[in-house]
Amino acid sequence: MTETFRDPDRPLPARVADLLGRLSLAEKVALLHQHQAPVPRLGIGSFRTGTEALHGLAWVGPTTVFPQAVGLASTWNPELVHAVGEAVGDEVRGFHHKDPARVGLNVWAPVVNPLRDPRWGRNEEGYAEDPWLTGVMGTAYASGLRGDHPVYLRTAPTLKHFLGYNNETDRHLTSSNLPPRVLHEYELPAFRAPIEAGAAVAAMASYNLVNGRPAHLSPLINDELRRWTEDEVLVVSDASAASQIAGDQGYHGDHAAGYAAALRAGIDSFTEDDGDSGPTLARLTEALDRGLLDESDVDRAARHILTTRFRLGEFDPPERNPYAGITADVINCAAHQELAREAARQSIVLLKNEDDLLPLRGGTVAVIGPLADTLHEDWYSGTLPYAVTAYGGLAARVHATFHEGVDRIALRGPDGYAWAADGPLRADGAAPGPEASFDLFDWGEGVVALRAAANAMHVGVDDNGVLLNDRPQPGGWIVRETFRLVERGAGQVVLHHLATGRYVAAGPDGVLRADAAGAEGGTPFTVELVADGARDAAATARDADVAVVVVGNHPMINGRETEDRPNLALPPAQEALIRAVHAANPRTVLVVTSSYPYGIGWADTHLPAVLWSSHGGQEYGNALADVLLGAADPGGRLTQTWYRDASELPDLLDYDVIACDATYLYYRGEPLYPFGHGLSYASFAYSDLRLSTVEVDAGGTVEVAVDVTNTGDRAGDEVVQLYTRQRRSRVKQPLRRLRAFRRITLEPGERATVTFPLRAADLWFWDVTRGARVVETARHTIQIGRSSADIALTATLSVRGEEVGPRRPLDGPLWAVDHDDYAGTVLLDDEPARADAVGAAEPAGWIGFQRVDFGAGAGAVAARVTSRTREAAGARVTLRLDDPLSGPVAGSIVVPTANGRHDWAEVHAPVTGAAGVQDLYLSFEAPGATVSCLTFTSGGMEASSG
Asked: Looking at the domain assignment, is residue 84 inside a domain?
């Protein structure tokens, strides 16, 4: 008789329950590590989570490399992004068919963290600064990875990284401040969309803390993430993150307690110690023995894991699963190569085009720059099966010349020149010939890479500290090919090796090693200029009809996982190159190829044409040539605001986009290039904006229609964008918010009617007075245009919603986290597994509640408070009316001494003067004073504690 779990015709829950019931407790615990052990007695094989598939199958050798995720989103074409997801999913299946132990079917993609700040080191992994657009693109990619079969999954997509993760600096120690409105309006929607649509079936928790609590312990995993669907959702930990709970984060006293807390919070699979599951299983077993977990906790996590494995078809006959027959023949097949080219082509954004310099119309093209004839892989790229560079793509179709535009230098030391041959670098060269010459790549922030002229290989440092010129490119988790030239005076420098922190010194044998602890121990070198890259590139540009300068970032250096950018500036040598080439040839086109926005204000002012592309994958050069030469229209649009300078940005660690006016939603300045910006070679006219109704109930839908006409003389792509703005509200509303878009292609003179359904229910905001979504009665400006700053037509829609009344604290607790305004405070955890609180971050910090209705009058308050610092014990929290600093005092709460982080006390105090509708403020006397909630009563104070 066939076991129930082996019968594909039985309901999935019954099959999972049957298998779960056949497993011992130890076997179930063994499922909770990334590398799940086989169960031979039941004929069950091993399984592992975690195949990287962000924009192609990664880390397993040559596979199709598509544009970076931020580039895929800049296509504004969800159907195309879905097709890329399908292709990547097929390649995962194909490689799994060939080598199942190496490539598993649980893929860790897409990344749906909204791109709140362009300095985030992992900017290229996300889609957009707008959470709704991020959700659209994340759903498209995940649904492609997942497949459309009603029973079986092509792969099991995992959303990264839940939640509030947008900084690399001290990422496992920093806490992301997410007030309720920011949480519900900005952070959660991007994750909710793919889960709710059934596109993603798993999620990964993030390294950081959220409101003082490790994200791996967040109650939001179960309270939000898993409530968005009726399906089982698998939640995995990020690498080594569970160990940090009792490690660097110090949130629990030992690993058994930390792992138990994570499992109870909703983590199902622990990504720890690579393939060694022993430590994880030991800690979970200890937690069971100590009563920190019981078997039902293990069963719950194992059920999530097994459900995913069943949906992938692991326990079914392969002929029933349409994805089981996909073979390795699909990897980098012709169809995927063409799709990679189309994706790269549609992702390119034309930022500026004066005097119709583009498309190019014949003549000689000088292709210049450090990124002009090379393609770079990022950390989550696949291995390029081939590479079509900008120069390669153009040279195949027009007469093109090339210059890299980087300086060539020699390093003269006290005993001779640094030189490279087949072995280690030495410092005893007799003359500055080719063997003693190095190309100097400036990647910004003083970080450089050296490429030996002798063999065109980069200089790196091996495990013994020896310098070798044997690296094709800088790369790897630890980049061992980057240096700083540290001035030593008298025109000399020493080489500081960044990965080891050591300084380069010549040994008695003349071999260069990064083994000196300080700069004083490094060998001093005089830098001699062998060839001036900017000058020679300018000479090349001067002889051409048009110059195309290709600059940008190296994805493995300055702005990558573990490293944020301090600013938005181009590397100085690249900026100098642009200026030199433009001075030699005013017909200069700038192509920025980068993982993130740059502050290119000088180029925007002086150059006639500017384009941007993410790192575009293997077909980048062909796609760029298609656009530059006019074979394709540049239909890409920005999914991030491009600022002029980092001074226009808030602090990187300030996640409150509402309070700090961040992203296009709230930014009040004039950006370099706005969200949604991008030009076409055609021109378009918008006319006849019309609404199916000008007034709608909160549950209704209005149809928004507009006519778009191609008024140019060639076919072109336009992205028609719909934004709304609420004119009156109880709360601060976005200045504009994207609601819908459509990418269309029109022939010259062609007109199309573009129609968008707009649901009034989508015009909600999070009402902190009730902890729920609300649609207010208000008028909304309906905006149709080419970008968030280029609005062609507007109309007014009146929505019959509801009025948000005053708070009524006599009817229930007033939670501190639900304040309307604040200064000098920070969000903290209440209990380890529930609720948030507010603490003072500096003296005189405060929070405010608008329109509080005390009725006939409040007579007393009971406050749930604690002290998180020694200074806070005995400090006062003053209740004021109407003004946080000078308003009448309504009451005073003394914060008691606490014995631990979660040692709360209820303190009672009389209240005077609080009657009718007034604004209420809590003013904190000392940092660390923390309030969870206030309960007001109309009578006098009955008791006092604390």
From this structure: no
Two tokens at 669?
Answer: 């300045």
Length of the chain: 946
- C-beta separation of 854 from 936 below 8 A: yes
User: How far apart are alpha carbons 31 and 21 in whole angstroms?
Assistant: 14
Distance CA(81)–CA(463), nearest Å, equals 41
What single-letter amino acid sits at 677? H
Q: What is the spatial distance between Cα 72 and Cα 380, in angstroms, rounded to a whole number?
A: 14
Is the same domain home to 562 and 621?
Answer: yes
Q: In whole angstroms, what is the distance from residue 145 CA to residue 85 CA?
A: 5
Distances in Å between the alpha carbon of 387 and those of 109, 552, 595? 24, 17, 18
- How many H helices and E strands in the chain? 19, 48
- Asked whether residue 570 is assigned to any structural domain, the reply reads yes
Beta bridge partners of 752: 708
Beta strand 546-552 with 834-840 is unpaired
Same structural domain, 377 and 453 = no
Which contiguous run of DSSP H or E holds residue 412?
strand 407-413
Are 452 and 390 found together in one domain? Answer: no
* Dist CA 739 CA 758 (whole Å): 8
Is 380 a member of any domain? yes
Say if residue 161 is in the same domain as residue 300: yes
Tell whether 738 and 613 lie within a shared domain. Answer: no
Element (H, E) at 107: strand 106-108
Mean pLDDT in runs of 10 for the chain (946 residues)?
90 98 98 97 97 98 98 98 98 97 97 98 98 98 98 98 97 98 98 98 98 98 98 98 98 98 98 97 98 98 98 97 97 98 98 97 96 97 97 98 98 96 91 92 98 96 97 96 94 96 97 97 97 98 98 97 97 98 98 98 98 98 98 98 97 98 98 98 98 98 98 98 97 98 98 98 97 98 98 98 96 97 97 94 95 96 95 94 96 93 95 97 96 92 43
Q: Name every residue whose Cβ is closer than 8 Å to that of residue 533 and which is 6 or more positions away in sequence.
A: 403, 404, 405, 406, 407, 408, 573, 577
- Which range of residues forms the domain containing residue 824? 814-937
Provide the pLDDT for residue 941: 59
262 contact partners, CB below 8 Å, separation of at least 6: 216, 217, 237, 242, 245, 270
Give the type of residue at 568. L
Identity of residue 645? D
The verdict on 356 and 442 lying in the same domain is no
Q: What is the pLDDT of residue 100?
A: 96
Q: Please tell me the predicted confidence (pLDDT) of residue 262.
A: 98
> Would you say 841 and 927 are in contact if contact means Cβ atoms under 8 Å apart?
yes
Q: Is the pTM above the cut of 0.90?
A: yes
Number of domains in the chain: 5
Collapsed DSSP state (helix, strand, coil) of residue 576: helix
Sign of torsion, CA 353 355 359 365? negative
- Going across the sheet that includes 876-881, the strands are 821-823, 846-853, 917-924, 876-881, 889-894
CATH assignment of the domain containing 746: 2.60.40.10
Beta-carbon-side half-sphere exposure of residue 882 (alpha carbons within 13 Å): 9
For the record, the structure tokens of 474 come out as 């800088």
Distance set, CA 312 to CA 18, 150, 155, 692 (Å) = 17, 12, 7, 45
Catalytic residues: 238
Residue 187 DSSP symbol: I
Q: Are residues 199 and 256 in the same domain?
A: yes
Domain annotation covers residue 410: no
Cα separation of the two ends of the chain: 67
Per DSSP, 618 falls in state T
Q: Which of 478, 504, 523 is the last residue of a domain?
A: 523
At a CB cut-off of 8 Å and minimum separation 6, what does 543 contact? 364, 366, 401
pLDDT (0 to 100) of residue 425: 97
